Give the backbone structure.
Amino acid sequence: MEQGFQCGGFVANMKGASIVSLCVLYLSALVRCYGGQEQDVLEAFINSRRARVSESHDVEDFSTEYSPMYVAPQEGLKDADRILALPGQPAVNFSQYSGYVTIDPAAGRALFYWLTESEDSATKPLVLWLNGGPGCSSIGAGALTELGPFRVNPDGKTLWYNNNAWNNLANIIFLESPAGVGFSYSNTSSDYITGDKKTAADSYIFLVNWLERFPEYKIRDFYITGESYAGHYVPQLADLILKNNKITNQTVINLKGIAIGNAYIDDEDQPKGSFDYLWTHALISDEIHQGIVENCNMSYDANVTQVCGDYLNQAYTARGHIYPYDIYAPWCTSSSNSSSVPRFDPCSSQYVSVYLNTPEVQKALHANVTGILGPWSNCNGYVGNHWQDIPVTVLPVIKELMASGIRVWIYSGDTDRAVTVTTTRYSLSKLGSLVKTPWYPWYSLGEVGGYVVEYQNITFVTVRGSGHFVPSYQPERALAMFSSFLEGKLPPGSK
Ligand SMILES: *[C@@H]1O[C@H](CO)[C@@H](O)[C@H](O)[C@H]1NC(C)=O
Ligand SMILES: *[C@@H]1O[C@H](CO)[C@@H](O)[C@H](O)[C@H]1NC(C)=O
Ligand SMILES: *[C@@H]1O[C@H](CO)[C@@H](O)[C@H](O)[C@H]1NC(C)=O
Ligand SMILES: *[C@@H]1O[C@H](CO)[C@@H](O)[C@H](O)[C@H]1NC(C)=O
Ligand SMILES: *[C@@H]1O[C@H](CO)[C@@H](O)[C@H](O)[C@H]1NC(C)=O
Ligand SMILES: *[C@@H]1O[C@H](CO)[C@@H](O)[C@H](O)[C@H]1NC(C)=O
Ligand SMILES: *[C@@H]1O[C@H](CO)[C@@H](O)[C@H](O)[C@H]1NC(C)=O
């Protein structure tokens, strides 16, 4: 178990690095050693990132990325995408579709999606789910370990039904984005050097073409949800949709709201919130916390000094070998599977990898039809490590969305230390929106599910006892929160 520290042995060469880059690099080193999930890549961040980051904190204009927009006829493609049954799947009464949507035929770029409909799909809204990274798969994480209808058994061959799947309430599209992630690909290798802007632009083209393939969804209420680095993807895509809705000759996308969980939003709040969280959750000493507060400059472009770096090193040692995505959860080891741990199986993503790399599974999913480089993996480190544009904060984008009239929710599993609830609270405080409904406990199944504060145009909901992957760790509470979000009501304040 101690190898985690060897592979993270670190802060050695910190000259010229910002504090956020160091935190994230350390995190990713640990995750890589343990084959962890999603955030391998909250990593990519940075290293080379600072030099390229746009200094502007303004809202980026994504609307001119591609002109004219690529829209292709989609007749017949929906039927071809229908999933009859996945290998090892239990019987269900909802429909599923999956396949590729071409984004750029000249480059040979296509994005892979999986739609899990509701049983009564015609009466339910459409929701897009995005995992983060950057470079991580919404199918490997979101669909198969979090909110999707199926989870993979330890045999890597059979699936079990998730009672708390979000497709109980909505038709959910899981999108592997950008190209290079999961089964999404490009025949032009330079496409794998990408960033926030291109990811938003491609996701938009995906949506417009997908709605041609599934025209029954064109006027349906539409929401975008996601977690972690999707704290960038989701607001940016929503912003692009609202802008393009005003100018486009294509489908106007009926965007009603967004919800982002344990969301990476702001480069200052990330380290500041993390270290305050470690201290308030009794994971580092008073002295180390004090040392960090007094010696580390957390502002966007400040560098780490020697004395700050020493305290950071002490913090990493002091907190011990703790699983980054849930401070109270076990690591995946040979004895920590579902038969020994009562709730979320920490080895789930390993079962998913085995399942998705099975040729019959890929065939049933209409995935990898062109023979793309394998194996399928949860995160693409190359894409993450070559990430280009990444604004230091998306708070200005969130502000625009708040003023646009769409529903904006930020939720947070409160035992995550990757993107902590403290971090999110600092960002909400920066937004400076007035409180409409003060803090209260909300309930699910007779227990406190978490806490809520409704601000003007933005709602903050915590999910109690949940790590980074909220629907994995607290499936009932996550579904209750999602239900309130879709209804546009605050979560229930009594049992
Ligand atoms: C941080 O370090 C980089 C690289 O050494 C340097 O270019 C930059 O000026 C430094 N920033 C500050 C605020 O000192
Ligand atoms: C599917 O619907 C049928 C008919 O309503 C019902 O008998 C069956 O139990 C349902 N199956 C599942 C898995 O929900
Ligand atoms: C929209 O269509 C009109 C009329 O066909 C055309 O003049 C205009 O350039 C188009 N705008 C865009 C953004 O494609
Ligand atoms: C932190 O760094 C920023 C950017 O380099 C600088 O403007 C600011 O004065 C520094 N703050 C302190 C307290 O040193
Ligand atoms: C799960 O853990 C139990 C108890 O330690 C062990 O006997 C079993 O082999 C493990 N199963 C898998 C699939 O790793
Ligand atoms: C795609 O299929 C080929 C075999 O045709 C396989 O070698 C490759 O690993 C697969 N790619 C992925 C991403 O699974
Ligand atoms: C909330 O939205 C309204 C209009 O939609 C806008 O006038 C107001 O400035 C917004 N307030 C905040 C804090 O976003």
Notes: The pocket of 2-acetamido-2-deoxy-beta-D-glucopyranose (ligand 2) is lined by residues 91-93 (CB under 6 Å).
